[in-house]
Write a structure and sequence with these properties.
Elements: E1 2-10, H1 15-25, E2 29-38, E3 41-49, H2 57-72, E4 74-80, H3 81-87
Antiparallel strand pairs: 1-3, 1-4, 2-3
Helix pairs in contact: 1-2
InterPro entries: ACT-like_dom_sf (IPR045865), ACT_dom (IPR002912), UPF0237/GcvR_regulator (IPR050990), UPF0237_ACT (IPR022986)
Organism: Veillonella absiana
Protein name: UPF0237 protein RVY80_08605
Length: about 90
């Protein structure tokens, strides 16, 4: 299953490391990552993939990243890639 993860908030040390650690702990592979910092605001989007046999990974990762987002003061969203792409298709 592919996941799209977005992170938005005020830039600070440890955002990428924190997100990457949560993903690694949950056996989620990062396929691509794009991040920018504009006027002190951090913006990142990641395409990730979980093993096909993984169960409840989306819920577990969402919960862990929501908790991390609160700790870091950023908004982290995790969506199934098919839903993300459907929402952004014209």
């Amino acid at each position: 299953m592919k996941l799209v993860i977005t992170v938005v908030g005020v830039d600070r040390v440890g955002i990428i490391a924190g997100v990457s650690n949560v993903l690694a702990d949950n056996n989620v592979n990062i396929l691509s990552i794009n991040q920018t910092i504009m006027d002190g605001f951090f913006n990142m989007i990641m395409m990730c993939e979980t093993p096909e046999d993984a169960k409840n990974t989306l819920d577990v990762v969402q919960g862990a990243l929501n908790e991390l987002g609160e700790k870091l003061g950023v908004e982290i969203r995790v969506q199934h890639a098919d839903i993300f792409l459907s929402m952004h298709r014209i």
